[in-house]
């Protein structure tokens, strides 16, 4: 390690600084143009901004691996286990008397959504809680808060990139499940599967926005995870009141299963609207509260 | 003060003047109750100066810097920047970074968050100035506390700030690192305005030309370091003699212009005159009459620490 350079700036840097427009007096339009202009990358890489930082957060902290294990891996196992459940129980010497004689595509989807999807959801909530606990470490919070001028820059990239990773993992897993169902049980209606994937994605976005809502009031990752989990558990309560039953968004979590049965995509439109609205409200709340929060 | 002040150039944001203080606060108050917080602080940091902020533990230094940097909100009062708001860099006493980013990436990110058109040379220069050139590719998570503090300085330097707020920047550094940081800060004088908070008064005296003394959240003194030290210079001399100094002690004690005389250790006598003038006129005559074998005579160095202790009311 070398000592500090206490001399004046290098001539090259000084020249660069002089050539650059004076920050702070740049008109807004020129500032935006400068932000979007292709700046020379440091060491030949893409510039490191808030969005790329979040991509790196997912890749370098191995969170992608957690998502891959929680969603696609369980997606692979679900239909196979269901298809060969009797044989597996025989090998294990367990009694499978209570199980139905024949299993269908819907059972395979239940196996993924009911087990893999739930584990995946827990992992997703944890990953999002870790990303959104931006004031958990004061030094790190000071680093970001003293350098960003808009509260949404603190929240939106973190939430969006993490949510995208979770949704991609879930879509990949559902795609695998679909392929396996087709292979093990025969074809299922493609439009129903696609609608199911769409509604489940909306459900995941809503669940992840609950973490953002928790981050508006709490700082520690464990607290964010716990609060979001409690909110998820309590979210079906409005179903107890009949007029709200058709609008209750937790229904979306099982859309993939029900669409392989007698439900139609139209049954999930109203819950999807509520889920999307809730997502927007939770994100706005997080941006507003985190922007006003003191360290 | 808004948590996220509008960037200069944005609608409603006043253009920063190029003259006058780099930072001004008026009646800045944040009351945490039970006498803690800061109260009616009027800070004036001259442009291009290195301003030392000193005070005992709990005096409100970190609170004041947090109010200035927007990390906390004031109950009342204003903070006025004489430099563009996006050219204010903050380095906290315990900086933290994403442990999975390399040092170069941390510095690049710090720069790009402020200026999207950051040049690669700026990153290299900032790392070089902070003494981290050889650790540029190491992950921040593997850094020692001292290196992390250097990285915090590099992250603050990269955007070429007009005003740097450094909260205890040498607290985790070894003596050599401390000296290097102090040289770095001193080298900024005239180009960058620096607010430098430290418990180590010798550091402040070494690098700062202006000083603000806080106690219990109130500003007790603000002005040039040299003036503060001169104001609190005491008419005291240290005399080193070959023998144990007992006879000399009695000689000085008999003089009516001597306010106090004491033996610090055998052979070293401290003489305090009633006034500087009386001391300067009489001390050599007394020594001549005493017949003592004098090794050295000199005024006791007045320093920021003695001035600080004097105005904060603490005994030395």
TrEMBL record, chain A:
Q: Does the keyword Hydrolase apply?
A: no
Which residues fall in a compositionally biased region of kind Low complexity?
1-19
Q: Which domain of life is it from?
A: Bacteria
The alphabetized UniProt keywords are: Membrane, Transmembrane, Transmembrane helix
Q: Where is this region: Disordered?
A: 1-38
This protein's record includes keyword DNA-binding: no
Name the residues that span the membrane: 64-82, 109-134, 155-181, 193-215, 222-241, 268-288
Specify the protein name.
Answer: ABC-2 type transport system permease protein
Organism listed in the record: Yinghuangia soli
TrEMBL record, chain B:
Bias (Low complexity) ranges: 12-22
Pfam family of this protein, just one?
A: ABC_tran
Which SUPFAM superfamilies would you find in this protein's record?
A: P-loop containing nucleoside triphosphate hydrolases
Keyword Membrane present in the record's keywords: the answer is no
Question: Where is each ABC transporter domain found?
Answer: 23-241
Is the Signal keyword given for this protein? Answer: no
Residues annotated as signal peptide: none
**Entry similarity comment:** Belongs to the ABC transporter superfamily.
The protein in question is named: ABC transporter ATP-binding protein
Organism of origin = Yinghuangia soli
